[in-house]
Amino acid sequence: EIYTIADVIQLQKPTIQAMCHSVPVKKPFKVGGFTVTALPVKHDVPCAAFVIQHKELGTLVFATDTYGFKYRIPANHWMLECNYVDDILQDHIDAGDVPESQRQRLLQSHMELQTTKAVLTGNDLTQCRTILLIHLSTENSYQQRVVSEIEKATGKLTYAAYAGLEITL
Asked: Rounded CA gap, 42 and 51, in Å?
């Protein structure tokens, strides 16, 4: 089963739509023991971030496929996009490996390292226990660098997602 906003469901094939549940925007709803709030975010197609609350987990913010996150949420856990690093992307553009048009698309679709830092440091991280960076570009970011820079900026334990990663919350 898929829980998402109506705008996302409308873009899916009928076979996928049959598995979808439309959720309200900015209004909490229950799924099992979780309370979830969908928040609209900016991307080049309709997309939502989610604030997920559970009595044992606390509050988790999940935001990917967006170039920013304007909300202020005191969360225990963050799963946040950190897709690319601008100077790495520029090096690839200068080398002719990446077209300049890709930068223009990324500016309107994905979060850059400095934006990820700003989102996190602009929020109350007092109760934050973990940060998981998601949706990293293989070519235009370096896992160790983004983890290091986010940890330095926030003072919080930070991971970069990879296949098979398990984190005990």
From this structure: 16
